[in-house]
Write a structure and sequence with these properties.
- By secondary structure, the protein is mainly alpha-helical.
- It has one domain.
- The radius of gyration is 37 Å and the shape is rod-shaped.
Length: 142
């Protein structure tokens, strides 16, 4: 029964590893875009001899950097929320399976104990001791 439960848990969590890695990947891609945007900004500054007062040349690279960061976070935050929501659902299912399994085992033990008890005979329950059934004979008075 435990092996079956473990197989079911593995089945429920099958794609959760991929889902859990998506927020990190999205954040890293956003950071990578930020780095590329900043590189572009510094390249444009280096290409211009006089960059003082040329904000429009810098704005394009900074815009690219912040857009990449925002895009990474726009993907990462909802996926992270969805991951934790789904893991909560899976954990509640696992807890539910545990309760059902415990109830079933308890019921099985009770039924097993009831089936091994000695049935009552003539209104008396015999124990498993040395007590035997002997016909009760009342002495006959003469």
């Amino acid at each position: 029964m435990q092996e079956s439960a473990l197989r079911e848990i593995v089945s429920l969590r099958r794609y959760m590893r991929v889902l859990s890695s998506l927020p990190q990947v999205a954040t890293m891609l956003g950071l990578l875009g930020t780095v590329f945007g900043m590189i572009k900004t510094f390249q444009s500054v280096a290409a211009m001899g006089e960059s003082l007062g040329k904000t429009e040349a810098l704005a394009e690279g900074i815009y690219e950097a912040w857009a990449a960061t925002a895009a990474g976070l726009v993907v990462a935050v909802p996926v992270l929320v969805a991951y934790h929501f789904l893991m909560g659902k899976i954990d509640s299912r696992v807890a539910e399976m545990d309760v059902v399994m415990e109830d079933w085992l308890e019921e099985s033990r009770d039924q097993s104990a009831a089936s091994t008890a000695t049935p009552p005979i003539n209104g008396r329950v015999l124990s498993h001791s040395t007590e035997t059934l002997a016909p009760t004979v009342s002495p006959v008075s003469a």
